[in-house]
Specification:
0% of the residues lie in helices and 52% in strands. By secondary structure, the protein is mainly β. The model has no long low-confidence stretch (mean pLDDT 97).
Length: 124
């Protein structure tokens, strides 16, 4: 059974930082793509960052230079370090996993496996 469990969300002032984690169990893919997505109320889910099993990372333009994703294989945990947070970063954040070709700058949202989400709120 594949499970993704996010943690680390919270409320922070603009300019602050948060680190989200996504602990994965039962990964069924030898070549995979991890994706970070967010969804604000009334808006569509959007891709934020992705990390492919070969180490390739991709970031949305809106977070480039501020967010960094990494993977600790020993802990089976994916991280999203978010710095210089802005009020417009406020959203529910999700991690997801699927086959390697899901890592694309078209940011498909049809990943097979998703976490439950963690709320990030940035106050001005």
């Amino acid at each position: 059974q594949v499970q993704l469990v996010e943690a680390g969300g919270g409320t922070v002032q603009a300019g602050g930082s948060l680190r989200l984690s996504c602990t994965v169990s039962g990964n069924p893919y030898s070549s995979y793509c991890f994706g970070w997505f967010r969804q604000a109320p009334g808006k569509e889910r959007e891709g934020v960052a992705s990390l492919r099993s070969d180490g390739t990372k991709t970031y949305a333009n809106s977070v480039k230079g501020r967010f960094t994703t990494s993977l600790d294989n020993a802990k089976n945990t994916l991280y999203l370090q978010m710095n210089s947070l802005k009020p417009e970063d406020t959203a529910m954040y999700y991690c997801a996993i699927d086959r390697f070709y899901f890592c694309s700058d078209t940011w498909p949202t049809s990943y097979t496996y998703w976490g439950q989400g963690t709320q990030v709120t940035v106050s001005s």
